[in-house]
UniProtKB/TrEMBL annotation, chain A:
Protein's name according to its UniProt entry: Gtr1/RagA G protein conserved region-domain-containing protein
Domain of life: Eukaryota
Organism encoding this protein: Lipomyces orientalis
UniProtKB/TrEMBL annotation, chain B:
Organism this protein belongs to: Lipomyces orientalis
Name of this protein: Gtr1/RagA G protein conserved region-domain-containing protein
């Protein structure tokens, strides 16, 4: 329903498949399935060791503020022979994520990547190529940057040789063991949101007029951030914001009325349940009922503020404690921001 | 502080059973993941932990390798087992030599019987996550049964817990252990009840600040809205502990948290220098909010809510402020003089 509204809003997103699609590729054992499991099924990063190798293309549909589908192609299949419908896949997808295992020899990956880019760009000149230099948790800080530089250099050189200069290609250093994968995925998804500029603008206005240092618009379920204001962002800030969402949702779920239909009876409270309940059954339930919010004060004078917005989105802000006496005004402004968001998604 | 009460806790169990891991998680803010870095404990590691105003926990983390163990029961015997307030014996649920573990346990009891007959005995059946869910209860019961049988002859009463570092069960066990060592825990309980009544709170929980173990809790309204989750206190401990860790990335500590949840409002604030209090209020206007889903009428309802919420917020914070002095006094009460 939403996307049809969007399409009316700006006609150029038209295509046979209404939801923007992300295709994920890479050589086998590169970490594609792990990324999908950790991002969209709340799997613990350590448990991804036990994932079986993917043998057939799998699609996980993901819907919240925006519907999109991540299609994962197994690395084993020989791209040029087996996939006759490559044209069709590329022409409907918005972004191509190519996962490179940085702990392995990546020369083979690069050749594979190059041929895929040629195909993809041929089928869809507007496609965003996103290269995830993955598993960097095993590399030292210096070596990560070296690897990124080396890979960037090689890929762009080869593309230049072929005379392809207008390819939109970006490189991300990622690991499922920290927040980098969320950040990288956020960047990928952001490029597919037509309203991004408007959202950023709204956040900028909100920050300027409410004494907010930094504001993020998060998707609660996946912890992807949809937009942020234009002030510089550092990783610790982003990490604490995602953690803040986690604890807010977890705490709320402890005391929330269970509105979901009763499924299985809970195990006896004395027995030990496996890992944390919520992680075992997939994505965390998005709170129903009254929109949740929370405020937390830190000892260094920072205030964390969270307010649930429309469509499973949450606004997370960092403020100084000086703004605290005027919190009512800030909340008043945030109400306007929420109205703006509602209008943005109801246009048409 | 001269009058501070020292409590000697012995932490024992075979090597690799997870003694140091649990100690690091509870008292040193490690995450379960971080404990992989821990090496074997050499001999006895002493840690002195301030707990509340007037209590020091002397935790004796006893390395579990056989060579050390033999020492404990021979040359170091009276050093180790004298003046023990509590013995925490950790059983590895996957242990291949369970019989030997139980023998060691009995040996501990025998020595305690001789040197500190008033000691409290706790048995933690650890690494429960390695057992399949359906079997956990049985495994735990079977082990506890044999422990109770053996300990009966020393007239000790064993309190058992099934634990794992991967969920909140560890907090449950340690909260219970620590609570039995706090002499004025009933005084806390009484005053917390009064506080809850005056504030018309649904639930009030008192935590120790650094470990986030539950000291005392009061539930006034077990309203149907509450998930009847009896492990919720430990879960809160666990969640807040994680939050504390992520705050430390910004080189800060968190001071307070207020949650405007979908069905309740929760406040977590500093009570005294060593405790934090959490107050949970249900939403009085809940029935209306959850039923109407129309955009515009909800906007109105929200306006009212936020106004009422503001007032409630201030009342609770004021209550906490007033109660602070009282709780500081309770905390400083010298247990030995009572």
């Amino acid at each position: 329903m939403t996307m049809s509204a969007d399409e009316m809003h700006d006609g150029h997103t038209a295509g046979p498949n209404p939801s923007p699609r992300i295709v994920m590729m890479g050589l086998r054992r590169g970490g594609k399935s792990s990324i999908c499991q950790v991002m969209f099924h709340n799997m613990q990063p350590l448990d991804t060791l036990y994932i079986e190798s993917t043998t057939a293309p799998t699609t996980s549909v993901f819907s919240s503020f925006i519907d999109f589908a991540v299609m994962e192609l197994p690395g084993q299949i020989n791209f040029t022979e087996a996939m006759i419908d490559a044209e069709r896949i590329f022409s409907t997808c918005g972004a191509l994520i190519y996962v490179i295992d940085s702990q392995d020899e990546y020369i083979n990956s690069l050749a594979n990547l190059h041929s895929i880019i040629l195909h993809a760009v041929n089928a869809n000149p507007n496609i965003n190529i996103e290269v995830f230099i993955h598993k960097v948790d095993g590399l030292s800080e210096d070596f990560r940057l070296d690897a990124q530089r080396d890979i960037t250099q090689r890929v762009t050189d080869e593309l230049l040789d072929d005379g392809l200069v207008n390819v939109s290609i970006s490189f991300h250093l990622t690991s499922i063991f920290d927040h980098s994968i969320y950040e990288a995925f956020s960047r990928v998804v952001q490029k597919l949101i037509p309203q991004l500029a408007t959202l950023e603008n709204l956040l900028n206005v909100l920050c300027q007029h409410s004494g907010i240092d930094k504001a993020f618009l998060f998707d609660i379920g996946s912890k992807i951030f949809v937009a942020t204001d234009s002030s510089p962002m550092d990783i610790p800030t982003y990490e604490i914001c995602t953690d803040f969402i986690d604890i807010t949702v977890d705490m709320n779920n402890l005391y929330a009325v269970d509105r979901r239909p009763k499924t299985a009876t809970r195990t006896d409270a004395n027995t030990i349940t496996g890992r944390a309940d919520s992680s075992s059954n997939g994505v965390k339930p998005i709170p129903q009922g009254r929109p949740i919010g929370s405020t937390s004060r830190l000892s260094n004078g920072v205030i964390l503020y969270l307010q649930q917005m429309v469509k499973g989105l949450a606004l997370v802000c960092l403020m100084r404690k000086e703004s605290m006496p005027k919190i009512a005004l800030v909340e008043y402004n945030i109400e306007f921001f929420r109205d703006a968001l509602e209008q943005l998604w109801l246009i048409g | 502080m001269a009058g501070s009460a020292r409590r000697k806790l012995l932490l024992m169990g075979r090597s690799g059973s997870g003694k140091s891991s649990m100690r690091s998680i509870i008292f040193s803010n490690y995450s379960a993941f971080d404990t992989r870095r821990l090496g074997a404990t050499i001999d006895v590691e002493h840690s002195h932990l301030r707990f509340l105003g007037n209590m020091t926990l002397n935790l004796w983390d006893c390395g579990g390798q056989d060579a050390y163990m033999d020492n404990y029961f021979s040359t170091q015997r009276d050093n180790i087992f004298r003046m023990v307030e509590a013995l925490i014996f950790v059983f590895d649920v996957e242990s291949k030599e369970l019989r030997k573990d139980i023998e060691t346990f009995v040996l501990c009891l025998r020595n305690l019987y001789e040197f500190s007959p008033t000691a409290k005995i706790f048995a933690l059946v650890h690494k429960m996550d390695l057992v399949v869910v359906e079997k956990r209860q049985d495994v735990y019961r079977a082990l506890m049964k044999s422990l109770e049988d053996t300990s009966a002859m020393f007239s000790f009463k064993v309190q058992g817990f099934a634990t794992t570092i991967w969920d909140e069960s560890l907090y449950k066990a340690w909260s219970s252990i620590v609570c039995t060592l706090i002499p004025n825990v009933t005084v806390f309980q009484r005053h917390l009840q009064t506080f809850a009544d005056i504030s018309e709170a649904d639930e009030v929980i008192l935590f120790e600040k650094t470990t986030f173990l539950v000291i005392s809790h009061v539930t006034n309204v077990p309203s149907p809205g509450f998930r009847s989750d009896s492990t919720r206190f430990e879960k809160i401990s666990n969640i807040i502990k994680q939050y504390k860790q992520s705050c430390s990335k910004l080189r800060a500590q968190f001071q307070s948290l207020s949650l405007r949840g979908s069905d309740c409002t929760a406040y977590l604030d500093t009570m005294t220098a060593n405790t934090m209090i959490m107050v949970i209020m249900s939403n009085k206007t809940d029935s209306r909010g959850s039923t109407d889903l129309l955009g515009n009428s909800e906007a109105n309802a929200e306006g009212d809510d936020s106004f009422a919420g503001e007032a409630e917020n201030n009342i609770i914070l004021a209550n906490i402020k007033i109660a602070r002095k009282m709780f500081e006094k309770i905390e400083m009460m010298n247990p030995d003089e009572r």
